[in-house]
Amino acid sequence: MCLIALLVFLLLSIVSARYRPLARRALRCVARKATFRPCDTGLDEEIKAGTVAGIMKVSPGAAGLVFRHFEAFSVAVTLIFFVSTIWLIRAVYFLWVYGNCSGPGGGPCLFFL
Amino acid sequence: MDAQAVRAAFPLLDKPGHIYFDSACTSLKPRVVIEAERAYYEEYSACADRSHHPLADRAEEKFEAARASLGRFVNARPDEVVFTKNATEALNLVVRSLDYSSRHRIVTTALEHHSLLLPILEQRRRGAAQVDLLAVDPDGEVDTASIERVIDSRTALVAIHHTTNTTGMRAPLDVIVKRAHEQGALVLVDGAQGVPHGPMDFHRLGADFLAFSGHKMCGPTGIGCLVARADALERLDTFIVGGGTVETVTLQNVRWRSGPKRFEAGIQNYAGAIGLAAACDYLSAIGMEQIERYERELAGGLIAAIQSIPGATIYGTSDPARRCALVTFNLRRVPAHQVALMSVPLAKIAVRSGVFCAQPAMELLGAPNGAVRASLYLYNTPVEIQIFRETLDKIARLA
Asked: Does any CB of chain B come closer than 8 Å to the CB of residue A20?
């Protein structure tokens, strides 16, 4: 999990400095796990608390749902993150090679319409 | 007590909306303390008790005045005040420097902070002393019936809290001190959580040693104090030795200084001591009785607020008259760390979670995995307690 967190925060760190301390802590966690020591950063706890508190300000009901099923929620968000990242890379590649976002014979990119 | 006037003295409370409920860990510092430390560094930063030039003379004068201020604060003479790094060092000083050859038992409780418990357990590990525990009920109350049973003529030292950092409850020191002295044992009181929150009279307390930290009572970090009766201090062996602790040194013989100086090795934390004296003067000007009364009101409000949350468990008694404004609790199905972490983004509330450097105590109280601790001080207000209650209510509904 901390390896996935590291990948996610590394990617997010490219676009926002806000995520760089989190990436550093995830890296520390990976380093500890790699040397067979338990992760002691409390990163997972902090991410959960921060996420739930953020949602609570908008919807206390939804926050409760996320709090109770945080593992499933985080797996889903991570999957969506990776899938959308892959799609983004693919679209940029097609735009570079074919001038559109859908590959050979594809239509124009949404943002060109 | 005018809480708003008090709050105006603390720079960190200038930021609107921040609620600091972690004073048992360390208190906020008023401007007078920061200013006193600044003055040392800017105006007379020199060695006390060594050099003889105007700057050093002023440093010496201020340092010794600080010792006298601390003494006044707890009704002790200046020559009964030893400066230490913190309460931990003061407790280690006594536990490690006492001679256990004729009496080899140390009596304590499972409620103690690691700062007291660990040096005691270390003495046991080295085979220097045997450790005996006073009985404690699940509410964190010391069983007075066990005092007579456990403290006997083989006891060298009774080492115990004044106020615990887990429940905010006080030990029955009058009974303990009486019994210990009847049996010829010395008494060491950990006053880290007691001295900051109410009047303290060292001589009326009757203990032989009293340890406390500056940073929990509006003073700077890195400075603490051991108050000791002169005869008890003489019974301690040297602890950390070095410059300032000796009269003369030859390669064959060392003549130690007497009194507190024997335990103040090397250049001292002058700025810290002077800052701590400023904190003592600041608290004394408000009045420790008033602070205690105000905190008791806060404790009542805090306990009621937490009790109003469905599924909340408070550790220790719910009687505010028997505890300081420190409440340790858990919410049902929301881990303590989550409560503490969420309190920050939800309402900028700083509370602590964990076992508070008192793992055996938390196990005894039925919270081996930790709890949340809200610890208040003279600058907190009932309005903050209300915001805390609302925040806890939201968090409790998550589960």
From this structure: no
